[in-house]
Amino acid sequence: MDRIAALKDAIIAGEMAQAKGLAEQALEAGLEPKEILNEALIAGMDKVGELFKVNEIYVPEVLLAAKSMQNAMQILKPHLVKGGIQPRGKVVVGTVRGDLHDIGKNLMAMMLEGAGFEIVDLGNDVPAEKFVEAAIEHGATVIGMSALLTTTMHTMKDTVELLKQKDPDSKIRTMIGGAPVTRNFADRIGADGYGDDAATAVDIAKGFVGS
Ligand code: B1M
Fold first, then answer.
1. Which residue range(s) make up the domain with 142?
2. Is the full-model pTM beyond 0.85?
3. Domain of 59: which CATH number?
């Protein structure tokens, strides 16, 4: 099996140590960092997203795959930076104010990273002001908000409204998700996207940047 295919398989299987070693070997063998990124890491996480959507794998497997991708990415990152490879877009993510549930948010962030987006993770308990300020400051493409409590979802509405107020012609898109969040709620508050799982969040973000 060639190195790219072996690395892609290690990512899909969530083999964290192996993924790191294979990324090192691929670079040593003279493969292009961009090829390793696209054909092994991103392709591997795309496959993970597909399997997750059809319930062939579950949250623990996705987390292991994402961690493997991050391990390989650690090796690749300095070479990608040197080569001037641009991320697909920048996504500011966080769990909304009053909400400490961060497993789904972390999953979404890792899958977006796996798809080639740069992530600015604001953590949990994030107020609307912080989402908007960070998105403007970092020149983000997307604000991705997660909520797990019905009592905290209103911060999503506050964020959408504050963004319109602070940056009326904003190109920054808003995307929301989390167990109590629905498409209907997203439409009502004027969010640009709603994802019922982390893989869908990736599809939506790709749609925003036209890829
Ligand atoms: Co709490 N909790 N919890 N909890 N907790 C829930 C959410 C609850 C449904 C349990 C229940 O009562 N049945 C309930 C909420 C009820 C409601 O509001 N309707 C609840 C409650 C009430 C509470 C407390 C208030 C309990 C208390 O103290 N009395 C308290 C609140 C603390 C706070 O946040 N201020 C609390 C605390 C906790 C723990 C700290 C113990 C822990 C969180 C640990 C952590 O996250 N670091 C916890 C947990 C683990 C849960 C459950 C069991 C699991 C949540 C989870 O991680 N799911 C949950 C019950 C349940 O869901 N079975 C529950 C897995 C995760 C992958 O799913 O985050 O939905 P999820 O993400 C999904 C999608 O929603 C989507 O992608 C993921 C899958 O691919 N997604 C997005 C998420 N964000 C997205 C963003 C997107 C797109 C997709 O675009 C931007």
1. 90-210
2. yes
3. 1.10.1240.10
